[in-house]
Specification:
The protein is α/β, with parallel strands linked by helices. It is built from 15 helices and 23 strands. Helix content is about 25%, strand content about 20%. The N and C termini lie far apart (about 55 Å). It binds S-adenosylmethionine (SAM). S-adenosylmethionine binds next to helix 2 and strand 2.
Length: about 500
């Protein structure tokens, strides 16, 4: 086997191929296990890794856009007889194009265009090759490439949100390895991932917040209590009538979806006290878990303030709670109908009847100053009506464009916009009249309550508004599950 590596350049000599260490790691990971199986390589280049793959598999199908490179690769591999070279643009013509694969595939090696949206396209197509109820390997080169744009790493890491897809091995050179000036790996050169289309549930940690401390109390597939074995809030707690409303996470949408809870508590218990953990308390409870929210917010512990500021049903933001805090892990879910709004699941735990939480859609209350600023902007930029347009950093061109275009087509009005990257605006025919980044988050929220329509990709930033206006959100791969809310929310393209 090692003689196959003779005359093959290292990445230091040809930046397009994998390093020799990557190839050796592949050989030792795959061993003899795949000798009767088929591998698909996306991005042949000069065929150097193809050569190694051809010795590990019964057959390799490899795709390349450049005729010159296909010919070069054929020459490099002229002594190999189990490689099928396909010259094609793998991104042209949509998913159907991958039907060049006619046999069962066990491994896909993705090493083509390294922009995240193209890698996601490759991943998506690779997954479609997985046999029903089986597991396959998806291998990536240039995971650790230090590119300025979103690349392989972002695409792979995003896909790892699915319990069906996991990184199982880092291969090739390690983080910090430099193979050229300004080319230093920011993570391992490559990764081997497993993907299965079997239904898998991710285990979650069940937490308790007691006396201002967080305790992990085991893992579970579904947070909360199933309807057929429901647990309820203790009667003594209800009798005291001092209620702390809390989530175990820090995203704005996460808190937004439970924003009607203070009012609903006050309607049932008119003399009760409703309190929200302060920024200080949330930091104490959740700091070890805050990394994911710190990427989007400088201070995610303040998120609850954006949602509950000026709410007349909130009595206090508190720095300490001496009792247990019953947060979103305490809920009663219906295994048959997981898409019941979280606030309703939580209020089931709080012994509410369905009639008592009928009006559960999120709600917001603004100060006079916030309203004045917002009204002045509306008067100045779009006195005859407007929509808002959102492309968050989770916007995916391939997945979301059609939905968003269709919604924009329906509402030909001026838009106030928020986009994670200004260049994205050129993708859409949209009349933008105001960049919402120029005003505070709370004023942005006020503007959304006054808009005729909200259009964008799926984001917590727009989830709090279906009480006030029509919200169109291009869905991501998975559904909203319990983060759904009641009201005017459209998430299916056929409903536009
Ligand atoms: C990083 S190189 C592949 C290296 C190769 N797998 C190896 O290890 O030696 C990426 C290759 O993808 C090819 N490529 C880029 N865009 C493509 C497309 N749309 N369709 C097919 N091949 C493409 C490029 O021409 C390039 O040769």
């Amino acid at each position: 086997m090692s003689e196959l590596l003779n005359n093959i350049p290292d990445k230091t000599e040809d930046k397009n191929t994998t390093s020799l260490k990557f190839k050796k790691d592949l050989i030792s990971y795959l061993g003899d296990k795949y000798k009767d199986k088929v591998c698909v390589e996306i991005g042949t280049s000069k065929g150097y890794t193809t050569r190694i793959l051809s010795s590990l598999f019964r057959k390799v199908i490899t795709c390349e856009i450049s005729e010159e490179l296909v010919n070069f690769a054929k020459d490099v591999n002229k002594d190999r007889n189990n490689i099928e070279f396909i010259m094609m643009d793998v991104y042209q013509g949509g998913a159907a194009k991958w039907d060049f694969v006619k046999e069962d595939v066990d491994v896909v090696f993705i090493d083509c265009d390294h922009k995240a949206d193209h890698v996601l396209f490759d991943i998506n197509n690779a997954m479609k090759l997985c046999k029903p109820n089986e597991e396959m390997l998806i291998i990536f080169d240039d995971y650790g490439l230090n590119n300025m744009w979103k690349g392989v790493k972002e695409a792979v890491d995003e896909t790892c949100n699915s319990p069906n897809f996991n990184i199982v091995k880092e291969i090739g050179q390690k983080e910090g390895w430099s193979y050229r000036d300004n080319m230093t790996l920011r993570a391992s050169e490559g990764v081997i991932c497993t993907y299965t289309n079997k239904e898998i549930k991710k285990e979650k940690k069940f937490w308790r917040f007691v006396d201002d401390r967080l305790y992990e109390v085991g893992t579970t597939y579904d947070l909360g209590f199933p309807k057929d074995d429901a647990s309820y809030i203790p009667d003594e707690y209800l009798e005291k009538e001092v209620f702390t409303v809390c989530r175990s996470c820090l995203g704005i949408g996460d808190w937004g979806v439970i924003s009607s809870m203070p009012r609903l508590l006050k309607e049932k218990y008119p003399n009760c006290v409703v309190q929200i953990p302060s920024e200080k308390l949330l930091k104490r409870l959740l700091e070890p878990f805050a990394a994911e929210w710190l990427m989007s917010w400088k201070n995610p512990y303040k998120t609850m303030e954006y949602i509950f500021r000026n709410n007349p049903y909130v009595d206090a933001f508190v720095d300490s709670v001496s009792d247990e805090i019953f947060h979103d892990h305490y809920r009663i879910y219906n295994p048959e109908k997981l898409e019941i709004p979280l606030v309703e699941q939580m209020l089931d735990f709080w012994q509410f009847t369905p009639e008592e939480y009928e009006d559960s859609s999120p709600e917001l209350y603004f100060t006079d100053e916030e309203k004045e600023i917002g009204d002045a902007i509306i008067e100045d930029r779009a006195p005859n009506g407007f929509g808002t347009f959102l492309l968050s950093n989770r916007f995916d061109k391939n997945r979301d464009t059609e939905f968003i275009e269709k919604a924009l087509d329906k509402y030909k009005i001026p838009y106030f916009y928020w986009v994670s990257n200004p260049s994205l605006l050129s993708l859409f025919d949209v009349d933008t009249v105001f960049d919402m980044r120029n005003v505070s988050v709370r004023v942005q929220m006020y503007l959304k309550t006054k808009a005729e329509v909200l259009i964008g990709n799926m984001s917590g930033a727009d989830i709090m508004f279906p009480r006030y206006t029509k919200v169109y959100m291009a869905p991501r791969g998975h559904s909203f599950k319990e983060n759904i809310v009641r009201g005017n929310l459209v998430t299916k393209i056929e409903d536009i």
